[in-house]
Every structure is written in C-alpha cells, then in structure tokens.
Amino acid sequence: MLAQKNHVLTASIGIAIFPDDGEEEDKLLKHADTAMYQAKLYSRNTSRLFTEAMNEAVTERLAIEQGLRARPMEDRFAIFYQPIVDLTGERLEAYEALLRWKHPERGFVPPVSSLDVAEHSGLIIPLGKWVIQTACRQAVQQDAEMGAMPSVSVNISPRQFEDADLVPFIGEVIESTGIEASSLQLEISESMALSVDSVATTLGNLRELGVRIAIDGFGTSYAALSRLQELPVDIVKIDKSFVRAIKVGSVSEAIVTAIVNMARILDYYVVAEGVETAAELVVIRKTGSHAVQGYYLGKPMPPEKLNEALS
Ligand code: G
Ligand code: MN
Question: pTM, whole model, 2 decimals?
C-alpha cells in the first residue's frame, strides 16, 4: 500500500550466463542488459535469456538509426503512390503515399524495420515531416501537369500524432506547397484512434485546417465504431485481413457488409483495402463499399508512373 492505493510492480529480467555469454563482468552485464531490453520490448513482466541473435538485432538497429541520421532523406527513401478507386464513378479518388526504402541491392522495399527504429528513436518525426512535405509537393506538381489530381493520403504514426508540432507543421505545408487542404487526407490507425487521449482534440485541429481524416486498418479492434462517433472522421479504411480471400457467403463478407452498413449510417466514406483479385472485387462491390484499394487495382508506384495510370 502506497498513499492508500494498491500498486502493481512488474519486473523484466535479462539473463546472461557465465562463461558462455561473457567471461568478463562488463560483457556479461552488457549482455544481460541486452536480454532485459528484449524482455521489455516484447512483453514486459517476463524474462529473456541472452542470445547472439539479440546482439545482431541491436547492431542492425544501430546501423539503421545511423543511416536514418546520416544523409538527406531523398538519398535513402522515396515515396510510392497506390491508387484508391471510387466504385461508383470508376475514378481515382486518391493515392496513398507509401514510404519506400532505397535498398542497395533489393531496390525499393517497404521500410518495415527502419520505420520501427524510426518510431522508437523519435527519428519518425523528421522522416514523417519529409513524407508529408514531399507528398504534398508532388501532388501539386502532378496537378499542374495533369489537371484534376486526386487527393493524396498520408499515414501518420503514433509518435508523429502526439508531436505538438504536427498541426502547425501541416498548416505550414498547406500554405507553402499551395495544396488544396481538402485534397490532403491523413490516415491514423484504428488502435491510435482508440488509445490516444487527446485524439479528438488533435483530429479536430487538423480538420479545422480543412484536411480529411481516415481511420486506417479498421475492424481489427472491435469497440471502435461507437468510439469513432465521438471523433471527427471522414473516411474508414477496412483492414486487408477481412478482404483477403473474401467469398460470397463467408464470415468475412458478413463482417465487411456490417462495417460498411454501420459506416454509411454514420456518414463515412468507406474504402476496402487489400483487394488482390477480380473475385474479391466482385464481393466487395456487393458489400456497398464506396471505394477499393489493393494490388488488383494498382500496386504502389513511383510518382513518374502516375501520369500513365491517370491517362
Ligand atoms: O497500414 P497500411 O494500410 O497503410 O498499409 C499499407 C501497406 O499495404 C503498404 O505497404 C502496401 O504496399 C500494402 N498493400 C497495398 N495493397 C495491398 C494488397 O492488395 N495486398 C497486400 N498484401 N498488401 C497491400
Ligand atoms: Mn494506410
């Protein structure tokens, strides 16, 4: 009992064993520390035995972090765009901006581990700003070249969303790039919408700038539909996991139909993500979803390919 309240303590324990994991005290402790970080990272309140693989993971994280800090973003990253197609007009509604890492051998790859490191180290703030700035600039450029550019949709990570500078920064980008505010969509994950305390305030401030708000990966945490009602949201993106291999009469079809019906009542624009085949598209059309996104409609592509896709 502390101040008349019960407090629960938990411990994360890292274990390194002499002499295999280190013959000197320093090394042994360092390895136990590495193992403890793994215990904290993955589940907390647990123990982990040191392994050599943990050392490699730490080295890789450090290398990625140094890479993230070292050069101009352009040298290391590019933004690809994936079409979001409206089903009623059969027209391009928007493009989702997706970060790609310029891998020296493998070409452009989804930056999964770099994003993870960026999020943990806070480097996601400058990286995320670069993405917002670049996506808006390219959208305006596209508009000038082609006319009638669809909206651009940018993902916002939890750390970015909690950054006090996010709203003013987006205001500045709208001003400096000249993008139509209503042509900019910001995607936040469903779990963020549920977990961040100040979510309604931040979303309200963003909406005041004129941008539109999308909830990404919808359907993975259930209680959300009622919670969404309290939030200023324009678009709901149904998670890929419900769309994958969706068939007529399947449970997934029933779930997607239920989400679409509810979302339509609440006046949201609904996008089904991850449509990979013609057969999936047929079922998704039946559910009444407004729009679709996925490999079947178009893979993420570099901006110079957008012209072809638009014409
Ligand atoms: O979390 P979010 O929904 O923003 O994820 C977008 C990711 O999903 C991108 O990395 C994109 O390449 C990927 N993606 C886009 N369309 C498809 C698809 O049809 N199938 C699969 N498996 N992944 C997709
Ligand atoms: Mn997204």
Answer: 0.85
